Amino acid sequence: MSGLVYFSSRSENTRRFVEKLQLPALRLPINNDDLSPRAETAFVLITPTYGGGSEKGAVPKPVIRFLNDAENRSLLRGVIAAGSTNFGAAYGLAGQIIAQKCAVPLLYRFELLGTEEDVINIKQGLERFWTR
């Protein structure tokens, strides 16, 4: 199985979810001034959705900066998005935007901290994804 790259804001919701997956993962820095890491293998990105339901600002700036690096972007294989169902059609919008712009599949969406069912679904889904 290849890796995970994720972004988590100061709320740490996404970090706590990724830890439940118990899979190797690279965290993108919170501070936009910190150097963005380089992906070394194919990866699936896990990102929260920002913007309160608006497309503008839905993708966190550190994620944009990371994916603006052509080498990082070339290793992106799929995206998983966190969001809030309170935003209706904009639920997990960051994942939809990234998937469309980078021509990769949106593999899954989960709400806020996710559930145990989300953890199981993602772990099983990633295993199938990387072995096909």
UniProtKB/TrEMBL annotation:
Gene: nrdI
Family per record: Belongs to the NrdI family.
InterPro entries in the cross-refs: Flavoprotein-like_sf, RNR_Ib_NrdI_bac, RNR_NrdI
Protein name in the entry: Protein NrdI
SUPFAM superfamilies on file: Flavoproteins
PANTHER family registered for this protein in UniProt: PROTEIN NRDI
Its job: Probably involved in ribonucleotide reductase function.
HAMAP family given in the database record: NrdI
